[in-house]
Amino acid sequence: MATQFSVKDGRRWQAPFFTIWGGQALSLLGSQLVQFALIWYLTVETGSATVLATASLVGLIPQVVLGPIAGTLVDRWNRRLTMILADSIIALATVGLVVLFALNIVEIWHIYVLMFIRSVAGGFHGYAMTASTSLMVPKEHLTRIQGVNQMLNGGLNIVAAPLGALLLELLPMQGILSIDVVTAIMAISPLFFIAIPQPERIERGQNQGNGKTTVWQDFVSGLRYVFHWPALLIIASMAVVINFLLTPAFSLLPLLVKDHFNGSAIQLSWVDAAFGIGIILGGLLLGIWGGFKRKLMTSMLGLAGMGIGTLMMSQVPPTGIYIAVGAALVVGIMQPITNGPIFAVMQSTVDPDMQARVFSLLSSAAAAMSPIGLLIAGPLSDELGIQTWFLLGGLICILMAVAGLFIPALKTVETEPPNTNGPPAAEAVEPSLGD
């Protein structure tokens, strides 16, 4: 029987939460190793940019198109079982590819199918874990946990690629895929013994005759929840703008290093490594410090810092590669300072039974902006110079950070309940625990 715990018991939440978190961290490492190995396999076998672009789209499209529906379903389902099933599906699909590689009959479309399945199931798992964190971790520790999460992501970005390259020299492809299966099992195992609290479900919108809402009605209620909460809508808009500006900017880094700094892959690796190290340092700082009492102020400070680092990139002279490395370090440090508190604010203010829907809507909208930004940034940078996009991104990030401190809706987001269209949120009560 699964062990139950309460977030109100300050002595008991750490062990069950970090047991689950540790398993998920190992699973993420396995997933990134597989992702690196498969992309490199496609690169070596085909040498085709079209194949690589297709692989990226296969992984991105489910997040953008299916993400909101996945979030809606996660809010209806048992989150612990959702995580178990999602990880199990990923593991089984990976086992299938292991067999195909072992028999030497793998085709490119087989890899596409696996990437699609991993993206869909990974979306369900991610939303379930994110939405459950606020029920497993006391509110006052959410910002620190987000700092730890950001530090984990930064560490994986640094470790996964070189480790994957080393493993490709030592193991056949099916051996690397098998590592991911093992890490998935390690992530699933604790979920059989530790219960994840379930939020009290609040029926919103027009009920059916049996008193239950449909999936479509739940999806619409999620949209209504976001659009009738000005602060949440503003945060979503800022996330969309940041993705639209900064994802294309840093996608252009290889060209900036090659054409502006007259550098090589070594210099590019310095900038990439500085960014990854910065994320670890920023996550560590946030995990220890916890941020200002007003989480939004911490986030706006981080956003201003990201803007300053990006602005530095736009002004570095051709001989200033080391300044660019320092700028990348600044952006990396400030990324967790920006993202962590915002996630903590949403986890502590969004109704628990709405969190998966809200997170999926926001992440899908933000992810959709990246390819649009790339389509615009490429021609604009060709015409006006690569540093132009960095200049634009840095200035707008700084302006948004300053404006965010004075927007009334954002100033009160942590203290005033949302005025959403629907029944008021239930009183804060001890959530029911899944078995």
Describe what this molecule looks like in 3D:
The protein folds into 2 domains: 14-140 and 151-200, Up-down Bundle (Growth Hormone, Chain: A), CATH 1.20.1250; 225-411, Growth Hormone, Chain: A (Up-down Bundle). Strands 1-2 form a two-stranded antiparallel ribbon. Helix content is 76%, strand content 1%. Helix 1 (14-46) packs antiparallel against helix 2 (49-76), helix 2 crosses helix 7 and helix 13 packs antiparallel against helix 14 (386-404). The chain is built from 15 helices and 2 strands. It is mainly α. The radius of gyration is 22 Å and the shape is globular.
The side-by-side strand order for the widest beta sheet comes to 1-2
Helix and strand element order:
HHHHHHEHHHHHHHHHE
Shape, principal axes of CA atoms: globular
The stretches of 5 or more residues where confidence is low (pLDDT under 50) are 421-435
Number of domains: 2
Question: Can you identify the CATH superfamily of the largest domain?
Answer: MFS general substrate transporter like domains
Q: Work out the helix count.
A: 15
Report the CATH C-level class of the largest domain: Mainly Alpha
Task: Tell me the β content.
Answer: under 5%
Helix content: over 70%
The radius of gyration is: 22 Å
Q: Report on the biggest sheet.
A: 2 strands, antiparallel
